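hey so u asked for the seq, here:
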Amino acid sequence: MQRILISACLLGAKVRYDGSDRLCGDPRLARWNAEGRLVSFCPELAGGFATPRAPAEIMGEGGGQAVLSGQAQVLEDSGRNVSVGFVAGAQAALQQALDEGCAYALLTDGSPSCGSSLLYDGSFAGKRIAGQGVTAALLESHGIRVFSEHEIAALESELQYAAAIRPGEATT
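ran it, C-alpha cells below
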C-alpha cells in the first residue's frame, strides 16, 4: 500500500502559524486515513516553531530549493531569519516520509514549508507567486511526489496507476 505524508493541518490539527487548521473534507482523505495510508506531519512544529507563531515568507528568488541551497531565506514579518528551523523541519519531514515508506505527499499550498506550487512573494502583502516551499522542494528532490490539497484527484489517479503497475497494491 502506498503511503502519503500529509500536512497535519489538512487533517484538522490546529498547527498553522495563526493557530488554525486547514481541514480538508474530501472523502478520499477519510478513506485513505481509515486504510492507514496517511502519515500526518507538520514540518514547522518539527522545526521547533510554536503555535501560534509569526507569519513567515521566503525572501529571494527560487523558493524552497533556494532556501535549501542558502540562496534565499525564510523571514518572519519582523525580519527575523528563521531559515534554519524551516530546513530542519523539511529534513524531519523527509526522514518521516522515508521511515514510513511514503512515495507521495499531500501538502498545504501557499505555505513556506509545504507550498507545492504557490508561495507568498515575501512582501507580506498576500500576493502569491509560483514556487515550492522548503519541505515540498526537499521531498521532491528525493523522489517523493508532492501534491497540493487542490490536486487530490490527481493523487488518487497516481495511486491507481501505481497499483495497476504493481499488482497487490490497494487501488485507492
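The first strand starts at residue 3 and ends at 7. The mean pLDDT is 95.
lmk if thats what u needed
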